[in-house]
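Review form for a predicted model. The reviewer records the input and the model, then writes brief findings.
Reviewer: anonymous (R2)
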Amino acid sequence: MHHLPDTQQSWWQLTVIQMAGWMSLPTLATSILILQKNSFWGAVATIIVGNAILWFIRLGIVSMSHKKRQSTLDISRDYLGHYGGYFIAVLLLLSTLFWYITQTSVASNTITHLITFQEDAKIDKFAQVSVFLGVMSTFLCMEGIVLLRRLSTLSFPILFVCFFIIFFSLPDRTLAVNGNPTTLVGLSLVLATNLGISADFPTFFRHSRSWGDSVKALIVIQLVSILLGIFSLYFGSLIMKSFEINQKLVMAEANGILYYAIILFIFFSVISANVANVYSASVGWEVLAPASLIGRKEYLILGLGLTIIFILFSKLPLEGLLEFSDTSLVFLCLILVVGFLVSRWKKEPPSSFLKGTYFVAWVSATLSYLLHHYYFKTLPVLVLGFSVILSVLALSLFIIKLRPSLKS
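Model under review:
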């Protein structure tokens, strides 16, 4: 196992790494989706309750890795077994690939339409912008967590200021009275869009200076998330149903403060997200790649590889694959939390049989996404998957009762 660098990160550094890698206008659009089925105060309550639940879940996940400074993959092998770890390594790489392509495509497409290029019309401006963003991301990920920390420390204040400049510069911030009841109907959406990210927390929080810094960072992350989520409720005129920027609105304000704030926000958010995703994927790469390709060169390989794959496949519709991989990460998060609680209750690490059970439960829950997509569209995928997980665990308990020797 190679030496883990940069293990003295403060609560502020832990916070900015997460927030800079998470903040993007399409991601913040979750608030708009909640408002479509809820009243304003119902949406606010949903955002607050959802983030409170996320805080407890993330606290549990981070506590799992604190003592041994384990990554998400290390913890996955503890609960899903050695071979299960290989599946998670592949999942982390695929998830990074799909997110990289999606985020870079949205950013490149928006920047291409917002900025006027004085070039031949035959030149593919989208490809030019994409390659530029890819090369920048590759350059900034070459030093791993060290450069990611420095980048995030710079990016987050810029993103935060740009966010509120965008908010106060919007020509229309009125909320139409939609007549929706005040409920927590969007709670599953808040959890589903954030639990996949939560599964990755150990990889980043293993660099924490202390347990106290980790707890402070988690508190600040959730408080800032609540603040941004509530303000994002007013972004309905800026973000369209396709989660893309309303370019007509922005171009109407061309050369104004809104115009420049959005361009800066998009640029720094996609670069920060790409670099964070590459670091997240590196733990999977270290399991699958030969030892000669691990170290500083792995970030270069991942960065350039993702950029090349993006150029080749950016035109393909990957929304379904992205949702599938993200859903699988959500269920991984739930499995790890359940496994942690069971181990605390039994006061012992999971047995080989239990590791196999967790692996089967994770695979079954992931495959339930297909059932949801084709047969149970009205049932939230989070509810369906969690039901599958509980069913597999219940079945394993029944088997253990029949064969007590499997407990060990």
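Findings: The chain has two domains: 13-316, 319-408.
Further findings: Residues 283 and 333 are 16 Å apart (CA to CA).
Recommendation: see findings above.
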